[in-house]
Each structure stands twice: as C-alpha cells, then as structure tokens.
C-alpha cells in the first residue's frame, strides 16, 4: 500500500523565535562592552536604543540618496547628509559609553533638523516629511533623553511656528492655498500632543511598575531572610538538643534531658507554626481560606488561648488577666478565632517588660462583640502603625528585632476577622503600651 507523504508544515513559532534570537544577538554586538553591567531591564532599553539609531541611519540615508539623485548637491541634501553623520556619531558614542540619554538627544536634534530643513525646501507646512514628527516624542520616551516627550513637542512647535512665519513672509513658495496653513500647523501640533500624552502615560505606568517590582523584590528578599532566620534558629537548637540526647552523655541527668525535650518540643511547635503561617498567607492571597462556622461562646475561646499562652507569660514575668463581660454567642470558626487571640496575646507578651500586665477584655459593642488585648509595653511608633497589618510587617526597633517573629501573624489575623465579617485594629494607650482589638457581629 502506497504511503502518502505530506509536506512538513512550517513551524512559524520556531521561525519567529529564531528570528528574534538572531535580532537580539545582532543588537548585542553593539552592546558587548556593557552586557556585564546592564540589568535585564536596562539591556532591553539599550537594545531599543540601538535599533532606533540603526533605523534612523537607514531612513535618513535613504532620504539622502533620493535628494542627491534628484537635486544633486544642495542645502537640503547637505543637511540630510549631516543628519546621517550625526546619527552615526550618536551610535558610536552610545556603543562606546553606554549613555543612551546623550545619544537620544543627538538623534532627536538630528531628526528635527533634517525634517525642518527638508520642509523648508518642500512646500513648508504642506511637506509630507512633517508626518515623521509624531515619532520624535516616542523616541524621546524610549531613550530616556533630556529632551523629554513634552520638551520635544515644544521644540517642534517652535519649528512649526517658524515655518508659518516663513509662509507669511513668502520665503517659502507653496503650491497649496495659504488658508490651510494654520490648520496644518494645528493638526501637526495636535498629533504631537496626542503622542506625547501617550508617551507620558506609558512612561508613568512603567515607572509605577518598576516601583512595584522593586518593592516586591525587596519584600521577597526580606521574606527569604526572615524565613531563613526563623527556620535556622529553632532547627539549630533542636538539632543540638537531639544530638546531646542521642550520644548518651545525658543518660544520668534526667532533669537536663527533660529540659532539652521541652525545648525541642517548643522549637518543633515554632517550626510548625511558621509553616502554617506561610500556608495561611498563601490561602488568603488566593481566596482559598475556608472557615468551619458554628455557634460558639467567645469567652471560652479566650480562656483557652490564655491557658495556652500562660507558660510564655510565666517565662517573661508577665501577669495575664481577663475581663469577660456577658456577651451573646457568635457564628464563627473557633479554631481560627483561637489563632487570632493567641497571636494578639503572644505579641503583647513578647513586647511587654517583666512585671507588666496583659489584659484581655471582652464586652458588647455597637458592632456586636468587641475583644481587645492591652499591654504595658513600649507600644508601636506612629509611623509604623499604618503598616501593622501588612504582610511581613516588622518594626525595626531593637526590642522588636530581638523578639523575632515572621511578620505574618497580624496579616493573617486581619484576614480571618474580615472573613468573619468583623474588623481588627490598633490604638495606642494614653498610659503607655498598645491595644489591639477586633469586633465580630453577634449571631
């Protein structure tokens, strides 16, 4: 049976990829002196700059050939030839120094000179060469030149007004009716303004994107540093304690063994808590956080949280007290509210001084039920208070650095309370210290 042989289909994606790779390699030949010091963003903009300069050389060279072949050597052809040399010089300057701004300025000035000198000898404001003018603000925008898009537009407006004045003085002979001159000028300047506005909007959005990317990069770096520290500290302690227990040197010291086991248990709990925090942050950011709602008594949740945190308070010499007023029951997830109250208590204890007091107060409120946690610590600076509930938020004071933490607890607590339809906040106390509170709607 004969086999039919079909011609192979051309892989257009592969062809396009090969084309763009070849284009990048070609442009990188001009940038090889600077490749090692350029970031990816700077490298992309430098490639655009080289491409613009090469295109400018080719475009004005073609114009020069046409002028020389049709008019011979004259003022316009000489200006065009000068423009070619100026853009070649700017390309050489950029290749040698990597300074795109100066090269961009020279490219724009050369373009303006060539366009207007050509227009003077080619019907002035009616010259078709003026259709190149709207490209100049875009070039200014991409090259980060001193001649910004708006400055370039104003420079071109000055040139257009000079052409109009030349028409009025009959220095330019035009085969078109003079009544259309102002309209031509207005149309040319209007198109420049439109392109300048687009260029400005693009550049502004790019700057904002750069700022957000830099902020995200710093956050990611801080997060990696924080997680590394928060993991390394308990793991080192856990490893050291288990190694002492494993080598048998403490077999005859049961009290020391018990101390190491207790420490290892707490470090394990700390690691589990950090992993759970990271998972909770991911669920919140992806809207995958689920609540197991049931009718509960919030006072019971607070009592349980106080019992769990009591050992931490005893270690720091902190007194824990509760003031639980009668309140109605709420529809909530008890485990998640326990997580919130524990987090607020843990922070209050960590940032309190020995002999201080932490009070948990539960009372009715206009919104339903309010729970607040008050401490007598150093409080939170006014500048940082607006960032308390952000991801990885940590104040840079010495006390708070020593206290450690992932900077995720309050962010997670805020997400949990808001999913319950409540609000969470902070206020400083006139007598010193901090007060964190949250409200929940009653059932």
Strand order of the largest sheet: 2-4-5-7-6
Number of separate domains:
3
Largest sheet: 5 strands, mixed
Structural class label: alpha+beta
Quick take:
The protein is an alpha+beta fold and 443 residues long. It is built from 13 helices and 7 strands. It has 3 domains: 205 residues, no CATH class; 60 residues, Signal transduction histidine kinase, dimerisation/phosphotransfer (DHp) domain (Helix Hairpins), CATH 1.10.287; 147 residues, Histidine kinase-like ATPase, C-terminal domain (Heat Shock Protein 90, 2-Layer Sandwich).
Architecture overview:
The chain is of the alpha+beta class and 443 residues long. It folds into 3 domains: 12-216, no CATH class; 226-285, Helix Hairpins; 294-440, Heat Shock Protein 90, CATH 3.30.565.10. It has helices at residues 12-31, 40-71, 75-97, 100-120, 135-143, 149-168, 181-246, 254-285, 298-316, 334-350, 382-385, 398-403, 409-419, and strands at 294-296, 319-324, 330-332, 357-365, 368-374, 423-428, 434-440. It has a 5-stranded mixed beta sheet. Strand 6 (423-428) and strand 7 (434-440) form a beta hairpin. Helix 8 (254-285) crosses helix 13 (409-419). The longest helix is centred in the middle third of the chain and has 66 residues, at 181-246. It is elongated, with a radius of gyration of 36 Å. 29% of the residues are buried. The mean pLDDT is 80.
């Amino acid at each position: 049976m004969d086999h039919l042989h079909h011609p192979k289909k051309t892989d257009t994606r592969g062809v396009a990829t090969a084309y763009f790779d070849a284009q990048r390699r070609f442009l990188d030949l001009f940038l090889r002196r600077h490749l090692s010091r350029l970031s990816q963003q700077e490298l992309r903009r430098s490639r655009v700059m080289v491409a613009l300069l090469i295109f400018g050389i080719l475009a004005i060279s073609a114009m020069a050939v046409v002028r020389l072949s049709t008019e011979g050597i004259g003022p316009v052809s000489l200006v065009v030839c000068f423009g070619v040399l100026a853009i070649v010089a700017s390309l050489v300057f950029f290749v040698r120094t990597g300074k795109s701004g100066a090269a961009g300025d020279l490219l724009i000035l050369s373009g303006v000179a060539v366009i207007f000198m050509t227009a003077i000898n080619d019907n002035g404001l009616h010259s078709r060469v003026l259709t190149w003018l709207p490209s100049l603000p875009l070039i200014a925008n991409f090259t980060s030149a001193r001649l910004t898009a708006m400055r370039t537009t104003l420079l071109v407006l000055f040139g257009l007004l000079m052409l109009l004045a030349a028409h009025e003085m009959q220095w330019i002979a035009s085969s078109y009716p003079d009544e259309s001159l102002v309209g031509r000028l207005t149309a040319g300047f209007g198109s420049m303004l439109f392109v300048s506005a687009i260029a400005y909007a693009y550049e502004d959005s790019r700057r904002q994107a750069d700022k957000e990317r830099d902020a995200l990069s710093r956050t990611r770096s801080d997060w990696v540093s924080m997680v590394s520290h928060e993991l390394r500290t308990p793991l080192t302690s856990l490893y050291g304690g288990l190694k002492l227990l494993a080598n048998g040197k403490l077999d005859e010291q049961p009290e020391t063994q018990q101390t190491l086991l207790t420490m290892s248990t707490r470090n394990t709990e700390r690691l589990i808590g950090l992993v759970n925090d990271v998972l909770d942050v991911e669920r919140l950011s992806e809207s995958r956080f689920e609540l197991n709602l049931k009718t509960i008594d919030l006072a019971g949740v607070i009592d349980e949280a106080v019992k769990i945190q009591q050992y931490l308070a005893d270690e720091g010499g902190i007194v824990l007290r509760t003031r639980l007023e009668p309140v109605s029951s709420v529809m909530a997830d008890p485990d998640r509210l326990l997580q919130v109250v524990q987090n607020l208590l843990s922070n209050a204890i960590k940032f309190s001084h020995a002999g201080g007091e932490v009070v948990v107060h539960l009372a009715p409120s206009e919104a339903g039920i309010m729970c607040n946690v008050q401490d007598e610590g150093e409080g939170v600076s006014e500048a940082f208070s607006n960032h308390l509930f952000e991801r990885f938020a940590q104040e840079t004071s010495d006390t708070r650095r020593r206290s450690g933490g992932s900077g995720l607890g309050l962010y997670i607590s805020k997400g949990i309370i808001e999913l319950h339809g409540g609000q969470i906040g902070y206020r400083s106390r006139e007598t010193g210290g901090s007060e964190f509170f949250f409200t929940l709607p009653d059932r």
